Amino acid sequence: MAGLEGKIALITGAGGMRGVGRATALKLAGLGADVAITDVHREERDLPPAEIRLGWRSIDTVSEEITALGRRSLPVYCDLSQPDQIESMVDQVVDHYGRIDILINNARAIIGRDKVPVTELSLDVWDHFLKINTTAVFLCTQFVGREMVRQGEGGRIINIASNASKQASATGAAYSASKFAVLGLTQASALDLAPHKITVNSVCPGPINTDRMSYWEQDRAEELGITQEEFRGRIVDEAGRNSPLGRIAEAEDVANVVAFLASDEANFITGQAYNVNGGLLFH
């Protein structure tokens, strides 16, 4: 894969210690890109246990890792439920680097409160999932897309969707609806931006071996009298046994596909949604 020297990448949701955002930031930096990373300030109750135990500092720690690779890094805290903060974040990145060449819409709402039947799903939870998983992707695409058009040199926009953007499951109405919408946004944006040589694609992971926070996992672990990490381990093991390739994805598996779509090799690919799920879903 050709390098990304001279490119500026913006990645949302990049503060997790084992998340796709961090893995993608390090992958692109390793290929020569300078990186802006963003995430929301989280209360301790919203952090995975390992991050609390190890003193992980979200995008500040990731920024130090990028710098250690010899690339420039800009951490910007941003609440993606607030449109004015999104616009300000994009402005900060452009002011700092002078341009944006690659946008990775990776952030997503913390799952758990949504895992109820549709008849019991609260409007507040529904609205929150749409704000973070869909509206924020739209606004980042709009603000960054305008900048890419102004630059006149093309660009790459890559949205992290999900298996749930192609196949829904019980107690998943808010999450699946928000992720199905991302694929529609991807296709429409790809057509709108094609005249400007800006490609827009989605990556659709299945289960991923991250420590991402889940209120549902937290509650189930408490009910069973085990730690959240022990319960998460059971889920990972079971999901791996159900996968044709015998494991679930690592964050780096997703980052590798993102890096390809961000590269020159993918300059004739747009409006697509690529599965990274070990064969769990063919669609």
List the helices and strands and how they pair.
Elements: E1 8-12, H1 20-30, E2 34-39, H2 49-54, H3 58-68, E3 73-77, H4 83-97, E4 102-105, H5 123-151, E5 155-160, H6 173-193, E6 198-205, H7 215-224, H8 228-241, H9 251-262, E7 273-276
Which terms summarize this structure?
single chain; alpha/beta; 283 residues; 7-stranded parallel β-sheet
CATH C-level category: Alpha Beta
Rg result? 18 Å
User: Number of DSSP helices?
Assistant: 9
Number of domains: 1
Q: List segments where confidence is low: pLDDT < 50 over at least 5 consecutive residues.
A: none
Would you tell me the overall average pLDDT?
Answer: 95
| CATH homology superfamily | NAD(P)-binding Rossmann-like Domain
Q: Return the string of H and E elements.
A: EHEHHEHEHEHEHHHE
Question: What can you see in these coordinates?
Answer:
By secondary structure, the chain is of the alpha/beta class. The protein has one domain: Rossmann fold (3-Layer(aba) Sandwich), CATH 3.40.50.720. Helix content is 46%, strand content 13%. The protein contains nine helices and seven strands. The chain has helices spanning 20-30, 49-54, 58-68, 83-97, 123-151, 173-193, 215-224, 228-241, 251-262; strands at residues 8-12, 34-39, 73-77, 102-105, 155-160, 198-205, 273-276. Strands 3-2-1-4-5-6-7 form a seven-stranded parallel beta sheet, sandwiched between helices. Helix 1 runs parallel beside helix 3, helix 1 packs across helix 9 (251-262) and helix 7 packs across helix 8. The longest helix has 29 residues, at 123-151. The mean pLDDT is 95.
